[in-house]
Specification:
single chain, 251 residues, alpha/beta, TIM Barrel, eight-stranded parallel β-sheet, 42% helix, 14% strand, binds 1,3-dihydroxyacetonephosphate
């Protein structure tokens, strides 16, 4: 099975309505300007922009996602958003377990798994993020940390259709430091081996594993060219239409 690359933009806490809709409309125009693109494209704006971005990309094939969701369907959780609300707003995906959420909101693997399971129950596809810190890498714990986060965060019921893994080394996020293609490939291969052990050969063949961390149009081709790297989860470079599109074109 060939895995179709996913080029996913995580806008994080950036963009007012005018910026977000302009960016989404430009991408939609580029997407509609060609046919048979060899990738899927996803943008994940801040929650209040989701409706506007859904409208801006309508008919282009670009999917929209949330950056987080609560583990419950509804209730007294001030400030949180449920997977069901995201789905209702027009989202197809949600990111869970981003390192910024694990750090800023003390999210554990257990929390991330519960959120991912809520996402699947709501009918969303989920992007589960994992990745080691610089300290863990320097201590030689990279593979062990990623294996353990994968095992702890993977939702029950995960399939290649509903679940994407994103390997984001924390030290490469927003720093301009990118994992070398070899460093990234080593971790991606280890993650694929974990998928195989847990879900079997077909799931390991089909499940996409994205790389994230200072990906840009200059380094994307070599990263995405690695056998186990199936696209990118892109932060800074996803805020500029030309850069994000340039990454997609490297597929
Ligand atoms: P940067 O591309 O800005 O390093 O961010 C990566 C990321 O965290 C995407 O989720």
């Amino acid at each position: 099975m060939t895995r179709r690359p996913l080029i996913a933009g995580n806008w994080k806490m950036n963009g007012l309505a005018a910026d977000g809709t302009a960016l989404a409309s430009t991408l939609a125009g580029k997407m509609k300007g060609g046919s048979d693109h060899p990738f899927n494209m996803l943008v994940c704006p801040p929650f209040p922009l989701i409706g506007k971005v859904v409208d801006a990309v309508a008919g282009s094939g670009i999917a929209v996602g949330g950056q987080d969701c609560h583990m419950a369907e509804k209730g007294a959780h001030t400030g949180d958003t449920s997977a069901w609300i995201l789905k209702d707003a027009g989202c197809d995906y949600v990111i869970v377990g981003h390192s910024e959420r694990r750090t800023d909101h003390a999210e554990t693997d257990e929390t991330v798994k519960a959120k991912a399971e809520a996402a699947l129950a709501a009918g969303l596809r989920v992007i589960v993020c994992i990745g080691e810190t610089l300290q863990q890498r320097e201590a030689g714990q990279t593979l062990e940390v990623n294996r353990s986060q994968f095992q702890g965060s993977l939702p029950d019921g995960a399939t290649p259709e509903n679940t994407v893994i994103a390997y984001e080394p924390v030290w490469a996020i927003g720093t301009g430091l990118t994992a070398t293609p070899g460093q990234a490939q080593d971790v991606h291969a280890a993650i694929r081996a974990e998928i195989k052990g847990k879900l079997g050969d077909a799931a390991a063949e089909g499940m996409r594993v994205l790389y994230g961390g200072s990906m840009n149009p200059g380094n994307a081709r070599e990263l995405i060219g690695q056998p186990d790297i199936d696209g990118g989860l892109i932060g800074g470079a996803a805020l500029k239409a030309d850069d994000f599109w340039g990454i997609a074109e490297s597929c």
